[in-house]
């Protein structure tokens, strides 16, 4: 009586093992996604801070009552930015080209990778879904 029971346990382990492996793969992917989300949150906070500084500079620039603050704060910053752009204009062009090419290549790669798998989900090497009607 013990032999069929252990065969059933072994059969159950054989069925569960691929699911555990797939779960571990999902866990690793989730871990990678958390790092990506953390980086996105840091960049979002940085961009929001830059937007805040820009809006404060715009308010100081536009308001006629804040002329002294404009001369003290905004004018030196704008002069520094213009001098940097003039000094590093060639490097700025190269940077813009690198970003443009990166966006183009990334867009093409994303399109190429996702063009075939629309509507199909695979789990442990078995196709689960078929074509999805829209």
Structure characterization notes:
- By secondary structure, the chain is an all-alpha fold.
- The chain is 81% helix and 3% strand.
- It has 3 helices and 2 strands.
- The protein has helices at 2-62, 67-87, 89-114; strands at 122-123, 126-127.
- The protein has a two-stranded antiparallel sheet.
- The model has no long low-confidence stretch (mean pLDDT 81).
What does this entry show, briefly?
By secondary structure, the protein is an all-alpha fold. It is 81% helix and 3% strand.
Task: Describe the secondary structure blueprint for this structure.
Layout: H1 2-62, H2 67-87, H3 89-114, E1 122-123, E2 126-127
Antiparallel strand pairs: 1-2
| β-sheet strand percentage | under 5%
What is the radius of gyration computed over CA atoms, rounded to a whole number of angstroms? 28 Å
Give me the secondary-structure category.
mainly alpha
Helix amount = over 70%
User: What are the low-pLDDT stretches, counting only 5+ consecutive residues below 50?
Assistant: none
- Number of continuous helical runs: 3
Which properties best describe this structure?
134 residues, mainly alpha
